[in-house]
Amino acid sequence: MMGGWLRGRPRAVDVSATALCAALYAIGCLLTAYITSPWGFGQFRPAVVIPGVFAIIFGPWPAAIGAAIGTLVADSIKHGTLYIPSLVAAVPGNFIGFFMLGRLLKGRFSWRRFVVVSSLMLVVANAIVAFLYVGTIYFMGFLPPELSPQALALFALALTIWWFATMLPFMLFVTPILVKAIARAAPSLVPEDVVSASFRAEDRKMFFLALVLPGLTFVALGALLAFTPLGSIVFAGLVVKLKPGYALLSLEAMKFLLAISGSILFALGLIFGAWSHFFLRATSMR
């Protein structure tokens, strides 16, 4: 299996890429390590663009291993010791996510495919991290022991949504800029299909839809919780083992998260759509 990692490039290049990815990701994660989610758990992490770039340029193994090591180093430095929740949750989630990104893009790269795979990867990887993380910190005593399985699942889902909504814009907008810059500066390092990939009108539409559709979905889910019997069903599940006030607070937090994150993604999609429309018109008139 490891032979596929090294095939076609000198071993030193892949080892160096892995080490550089881990170091840069650890530094990038530490820069925002103290910006947490609204619940005080889970970090704001725009640094996901770093292993994203390595996955596109160097393939799945350097990105996956580098991301797994980098996140563990950053979390352990932040907490002053080997951080078990990171080892149990963030390491496998980052490894699987960026391996998926690199594997599905390798040899078949296009910006349209990048949008689809990146969006899918963020859902899968963040769900893995969130559910493993919530379970781990619960059993370690970092969460109230009276929380029900429904409440824990809701918390994990909320973290998944929050991470997805805060990471997706960076992945879609910053990663292409960095890849293009590296392709111009060192084209010999970048796969030929990545160097030759160009932004077409169809690709811009995919970027637009990748922001607008999740945004609308989140807003719709928030509306369902607020204005349909679904909210009562979720509340009934929470109140089984939680005090009514705490259960209501959890439900309101979920509604707020869905509404705000969905609105932001939708607005970013509209802004990008308007910009790309005028950009295409301006370039076609030249």
In the CATH hierarchy, the architecture of the largest domain is: Orthogonal Bundle
Q: How many structural units, i.e. domains?
A: 2
Main pleated sheet: none
Helix amount, in percent? Answer: over 70%
Unreliably modeled segments: 1-6, 282-286
The CATH topology of the largest domain is Arp2/3 complex 21 kDa subunit ARPC3
Radius of gyration: 20 Å
Order of helices and strands: HHHHHHHHHHH
How would you classify the helix and strand content by structural class? mainly alpha
Question: What percent strand?
Answer: under 5%
Structure annotation, total helices? 11
Task: Report how far apart the termini are.
Answer: 50 Å
Summarize model confidence as the mean pLDDT.
89
Per the principal axes of the C-alpha atoms, what is the gross shape?
globular
DSSP strand tally: 0
* CATH top level class name of the largest domain: Mainly Alpha
Supply database-style keywords.
Arp2/3 complex 21 kDa subunit ARPC3, disordered N terminus, 2 domains, 79% helix, 286 residues, single chain, mainly alpha, globular, disordered C terminus
Characterize the structure shown.
Helix 3 (49-58) runs antiparallel to helix 4 (60-79). The protein is globular. It has 2 domains: 1-189, Arp2/3 complex 21 kDa subunit ARPC3, CATH 1.10.1760; 199-286. The longest helix has 41 residues, at 244-284. With 286 residues, the protein is mostly helical. It contains 11 helices and no strands. It has helices at residues 2-6, 11-31, 49-58, 60-79, 84-105, 111-139, 149-185, 192-196, 201-227, 229-238, 244-284.
